[in-house]
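TL;DR need C-alpha cells for one chain.
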Amino acid sequence: MSIDFAQRSVPKMQYATYPSLVDQNVLITGGGTGIGATLVEAFALQGARVSFLDIADEASLAVQESLAGCAHLPQFTHCDLTNLDSLKDSFAQIAQQRGPIGILINNAANDTRHDVTQTTAQQWDASIAVNLRHQFFCAKAVLPSMLAAGGGVILNLGSISWHLALPDLAMYMTSKAAIEGLTRGLARDFGAHNIRVNTIVPGAIRTPRQTMLWHTPEEEAKILAGQCLKQRVEPEDVAALALFLASDNGARCSGREYFVDAGWYGA
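>> reply
TL;DR here they are.
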C-alpha cells in the first residue's frame, strides 16, 4: 500500500523534561519566526528564562504573548545582529536584567536564493554578516556571562545545504560550512571554562517561510525521495535536539555536529 507521507498528520511533539533547564537564562537569536520561535517555546515550556533577539517586531511580540502562561515570560529585544554595537549592547542589557546567560542558541540566518553571476561584493558582505559573523560575536559577547556562571552551552545552527551542495545558495552554504569550523574552534578555546559548543545541522525543515517560498509539492516530493525517513522534519524536531544538547544530559557533548535531517542524502 502506498502512503502519502507529505500529507501525514504530525502529532504535537511531547518534549522530554530536563530539570537542569529550569530557571536557566537562555538567549536565542532569530526567535521571532520559524525554528527560532519553536526554540523559544520549547525552552520556555521547560521553565527556562528565555530572552530572544529579532528584527521582526510583530511576529516576536506575538510569540512572547502566546507564552504568557509559562513560569517565566520570554523577553523579546529588537536587535539587528549585523550591527555589532547593537548586538553587544543587547547582550549586556539582557545579562544585567536577567543575570548571567547560561545558554546561547545562534539561530538567526537568511537563506535567500541567489545567482552567483549576479551577486556583488556588497551582497557577499551582507550574507556573511547575517549568516556567520554574528555567531562569532554573539559567542564573544556571552563569554563574560558564562565565565561568571562557571560554564555554559553554545549551540550554533548550521545547515544541511552545503553537505548536499544545493543550487543557488553558494554564499549561504559558505557561511554554514564555516559555522562547523567555528564551533570546533570555540569548543577548544572555551572548553577549559566548562563551556560546551556544538552545531545543530537541520535538514529540510517545514517552516512557514520554506513552505511559502520554496517547498512546493514537487520540491517536497524530491526531499522525501532523498530522505531515509519519509516524513518531513519539523521545527519541533530541531528543538527536541537543542533541549538535550543544552541540558545536563548532554554534558559530554562538545565540538561536534548533530544532524536532524531524517537521513537526507539528496535525491
